[in-house]
Amino acid sequence: MSAELRARVLAAATAEPSPTRAAVRRRNMLIGMVAAASGIGAFVIFAVLMSESHLLRLGGEVVPQQRLERPVWLVVATVGGALGVAATAVWLALGRGRSMLGRSPRWLLYGGVLIPVSLLVWKVSCSLAFGDAMVAWPERPGERCLSLSLLVAVGPLLSFLAIRRHAPVQPALNGAVIGFAAGACAWVAADLWCPVAYVPHLLLGHILPLFVLAGAGALLGRTLLSLRHR
To answer: How far out from the chain centre does Cα 61 lie?
Structure first.
């Protein structure tokens, strides 16, 4: 760490009163509840408006007079794996590791690569065991899933930034990983609602939102998490 950065970190720490661990824990728990409530609320509103309140969609009409249904065990597998990835992404984005300055850039870069790759690989791998789930859906290119993912992720993204509060080193990179974490949480909702596993659809409707959120997180992180802002 450079002498200038060290001085800025110490000055920021001195200027800000240190809350107790219990107070920080209560604050973060409250913000986490707000994040969960906002995401669930956005998901319910979207489902009410777009699919007659169907939160879980097992299938639909691929083409006229051809309908496909997702097996329940396929939904359990894909959603369960997505929950695991989302939990790991949140742990990576909000934790500081062994340093008070946060995780190293290497760890953050690993997370930025592995989060979207893991979600896509898990979804495709599970769906390959059920061949019909991988067919093309011409009338569902992915725009609605893109909208759903972004809508659900807005609350978690802002809440995660509030929990993280500041990142003296690499604030933009920290913000990007927070964006990926919010997108991973939204992936769970999209996987529940969407029965399509066609790869071009996944790339547009499920993967693209992760990178949009990562870009937004990087911009917000650079503004809100840096010492200059504080």
So the answer is: 29
Rounded Cα gap, residues 180 and 182, in angstroms? 5
Single out the residue of 77, 80, 88, 75 nearest to residue 114, CA to CA: 88
Is there a contact between 111 and 180 (Cβ–Cβ < 8 Å)? yes
Burial class (CB in 10 A: 0-12, 13-18, 19+), 194: buried
Phi/psi for 68 (5° steps) reads -125, 145
- Positive or negative: CA dihedral 140, 129, 184, 102: negative
Answer whether 145's CB lies under 8 Å from 208's CB.
no
Q: Tens digit of pLDDT for each residue in 170-198?
A: 888 888 999 999 999 999 999 988 888 88
Q: Which helix (H) or strand (E) holds 66?
A: strand 66-69
Contact 177, 108 (CB under 8 A): yes
CB atoms within 10 A of CB 199: 15
Tens digit of each residue's pLDDT (9 = 90 or more) over 81-122? 999 999 999 998 887 666 666 677 888 898 889 999 999 999
Q: Taking the complete model, does pTM exceed 0.90, yes or no?
A: no
Integer Cα distance of 12 and 216 in angstroms = 25
Residue-range domain boundaries for the chain:
3-58+67-224
Distance CA 157, CA 122 (A): 23
Q: Around Cβ 145, how many Cβ atoms within 10 Å?
A: 25
